[in-house]
Queue: 2 jobs
Job 1
Amino acid sequence: MKLLKNIALSDTGFVFNPGTGDSFSVNPIGLSILKDLQEGKSEEAIRNRVIEDYQTDNETIEKDLYDFLKMIEQFNLTDYHE
Amino acid sequence: MSKRKITVAVSGLNNIDSPGPGIPVIRALKDSDFFEIRIIGLSYDTMEPGIYMHDLVDKTYQIPLPSAGQQSLLTRLSYIHQQEKIDVLIPNFDAELFNFIKLHDTLKNMGIDTFLPTLEQFEERQKWSLNTFGEKYGIKVPKSKQINSTAEIHALTHEFGYPLVVKGKFYDATVAYSPEQAMAAFNKISGKWGLPIIIQQFTPGIEVNLTGIGDGKGNLIGAVPMRKTYITDKGKAWAGIALEDETLMNIARNMVKGNNWRGGFELEMIKTDKREYYLIEINPRFPAWVYLAVGAGQNHPEALVRLALGEDVKPYESYESGKMFIRYSYDKIVDLKEFETISTLGEL
């Protein structure tokens, strides 16, 4: 999954899609995941990074990460052609 | 740079909850880098707020309703021109455009420049011709047809299904979910704007609009796409945001290239979940939200005045997406004397 190229991410957690005009607010962990996607990291790499940063386990993170990724897909923040 | 002093007449001073484009056009002209502009307002009704906005409008004259015909309009414009020496005239209402287009040559001979679509361009984008227009310029258009009587409504169930959209020939559109609702919408809209009524297939999706200007030679001089982010109960944008939308820009470029569009215009489109674009309307003038284009870096009304004066205008190459507009209401205090003057003398 890739984030659309023109998505603007602010350090405050403000996310803006100039293609649709939609804007969102995410918390620091959400922002870190979006930045990972923008850098082209794989879902597995993101999962491992979050597990390490937040000292948690795979079971805890898997469902939440899946939900978050599905949500940003629904909000048209991901590349349609990917 | 010293600015050239000119006089521009502008209609559409009804800066109300369903606003005309006049005041935003005037604000854009006041921001001009090229001109110092005296604004002459042209009004139809004494309650148009722009008449009393003296910081924007220097003088206002009442003009006859479009139904009074071209001769009556010309007589009035001749008088106004005698007083004011108008350089450029920008009509902003769909309903008045036909008369102004027909008077184009006469106005030109009088020394008044306009920059309007040709009659052919104006007619081929009419709501009842939109399907043909779409086919000609490769733009998807929801199926539509015109009807002239409520007797035709029952047959629509099989032809269109529900919901469908009932539209007036100039303004107003209502989504109807049953034949009864379609009937009520037909009566309400035809009572206000006359016949025909246009029936359009309902297309689910997000409405995205574009304000643009063509130079009459196939070049798109400027264009800014926008999505409404707050909509009034009349379906008008109370807030909106400039978008980055290359597909929509290409649709505008192709249309202007294909028909040599001359003047300002607005494309009203529906973007579906599958990211397909359907044209639901083309307005042959600037929209009321045109000042967003100025805020985003493209002064379309200024470009129109330059084109009207025969200047060579280069296309804008960029704009800033993410710029927003938010309308506000404001209680203007007006002396009774002013209302009396415009009501009795027809000018203020």
Job 2
Amino acid sequence: MLEVRELSKSFGGLKAVDQASLDVRQGEIVGLIGPNGAGKTTLFAAIAGFHKPDAGRVTLDGTDITALAPHSICARGMVRTFQITQPFAKISVRENIMVGAYLHTADRALAAHQAEAVAGMVGMAGQLDQMGADLTVAGRKRLELARALATGPRLLLLDEVMAGLNPTEITEIVQVIRDIRDSGITILLIEHVMQAVTSLAERVYVLNQGRMIAEGTPAAIADDPQVVEAYLGHGAAKVLRA
Amino acid sequence: MSRQAVLCAVGLGIAVIYPLLAPNYLINIGMMVFFVAFIGQSWNIAGGFAGQTSFGHVVFFGTGAYTSTILQVTYSWNPWLAWPAAMLAGGIVGWIIAFLSFRAGLRGSYFALITLAFAEVFRILANSVPFTRGGLGMLIKADQRPINFQFKDPIWIYYIALVLCVISLLIAWRLTRNRFGARLVAIRENEDAARALGIDVFAEKVKVLTLSGAMCAAGGTFYAQKYLYIDPSIAFGVDKSVEMLLVSMVGGAGTIFGPLIGSVALTVINEVTRGLASVVPALKNVQPLSLVVYGIMLVLIVARLPDGLMGLFRRKPRHA
Amino acid sequence: MLDPQIIFAGVLNGLLAGGIYVLVAVGLTLIYGVLHIINFAHGSLLMLAMYAVFWLWRLVGVDPYVALPVVTAGAFIFGFVLYRLVIGRFSHGRDENVLLITLGLSIVFDNAALLFFGGETQTIDVPYAGSFVQLGAAFLPLPKLISFGASLLICVILGLYMAKSDTGKAIRAVAKERQGARLVGIDVDNIFAISYGIGIACLGAAACLLMPTFYVTPTSGNAFVLVAFTIVVLGGMGSFIGAAVGGFIIGITEALGGLFLGEQLGQIGISLIFILILLLKPTGLFGSRA
């Protein structure tokens, strides 16, 4: 469904993403992990059209979407969320979600109806009239998810939706993400914390210093010495095995 | 909801009956309230709803005033026909300024300053090119017949201002209830998030400035027809830009009734200082005193009341 | 075609005017560079300083050049207090809010001046106002030469102060990395107020240097606002060198614009430069920030 081929992006002299490739197939939940500063968010931003890649290609369902504007990528059914949540502060949760729902309809009643349905799906039905600015961290994360869902995507790019949440909240949102996938939406998610991904994703990519260093099932990844070293430092794999 | 509708109907009723009972100078003040609310609303649609703060909105006002006046004086158009042409011109100028500025990625203060510079360019041009008659300004020949958009009885110009104001309120009301308006607010609150949710931010911003420019230009023509005279500093001076911004900010930027409330508030201040001046002889010059008060209000409102005077009417305080 | 001698004289006069512009723009760019705010009240504050110079002369008989230390110090204090009490406290850290607050302040200052001082054009008669220095075909007014030299000297002193003094180093640290500066124990809010004060102090000095050849009215500030913004944008927001180079370019542009296009149309050059720089190269000639 999504194919990323040899994508590179530098800022100044710094290579944030270096020839990274990945595939996401219809109906999957795919994880993208890596230590802090590995370039995950940059890769996401480049896929979603927020940064123009220096090299490489992004295709969605066979069409080249490299460097299309974010709004046209969204219109083609791929939408991203932000790690640092960006609620529209001065309007209600309902109106926040309606902004997403308006992508495919100009009808206010229909958009409001869809917003309510999506709110129910992510567990925000009781908060529809709260202001965006008044939400807790967990609320903001859900709102990010809800707005993105309301655009009616086929592929959802989630950037650290679990960061900053407590264990109970994580359990809840993991269930929400599963439900979303079961409703037929494919998911690519970034996580900093490996455990969170292993319980969700069928396949995992590991990015380190801008390069894709491993790909496989969560179990295989956890045993990959390269991955362990990326997370724990040079030589760690040997120590662990001993 | 229905309470608000009743309030609106009562307000409109009073506004319609008012000139039948008021003396001419009060009718004139009422006319100015609605006129300033109208051009203030044109600012509010771009600056309040969409968050694109402009310091040079007068560029549209002057474009409208000069377009209809030149068509009328130089090319003998009927002013009623010149009016839509003026709006078209204002819309085109709005489109061009928005296209250039937003293509260059200008935001926030930079956008505010570039609009100021555009207004300045237009002012200097109007001062220098022959077809505006330069600094002399342009006089529209007095011929007080409705067909000429000139009226003997001030009541008619009052009603036209009222109609303009009501139309602008309806436009603002629509924006609170349709997709275009929702997108503008999203852009104001967070451009990146808006973009991620499929909004073509550039296109929407160009659209709103075009609409705002056309509205403001309509105000320019109205002004020219009321006073039958314009010159570069009236039509393109900073004062009008500031006035539009002030009434919206004071009343409540991004709210439907903000510009109207702001316009009423500023008129009240104006009249109070005028009254004060007649008692305290040291204050013979009224205009600056009320402007001092406006300036202080602007500072206080930015500091304490981000929703302007409208914020006082809301039960639930909103976050900045 | 114009006589090259006249053009030469025009360029020289533009350079001289540019000296004052540099001083005004350095104040503006310092405030931007450190606080990252656009001080829309810059022109109005210059106007107030010019009135201070005027009244010192009219009421006490103080020569503008003698008044320079006093007015500069007074302007610093005024700027410091204004930042502490109003701008810093009310803006909630939002860029548009600062713009609106400084706009509000400029409305207050302009109209308060009109209210208290009246709308008349005020000038100062100093004995040396009519003295000229001949340079080739150009006659240069002595006060303009003095203001040119003095404003450049002040800029150099300010530059040295920023480079060498502890406060200057702290200001530069805050300009570069305010979080880091806070972490190493610099009182960032105090540095903001000091920087704003220094920016306004530049206006105090500029007012003293301007008044012998210029006039003041409540709207005098308006003439300088767009000029100062253009210089700062042209040079690159926050860049000292940029402000200096920009000041001279704008001074010369204005002089030549007036020469070729006439008094009215000549002013258009500045606004056009401003627009074109913002549209085409918003970082300016020496700026690093977008």
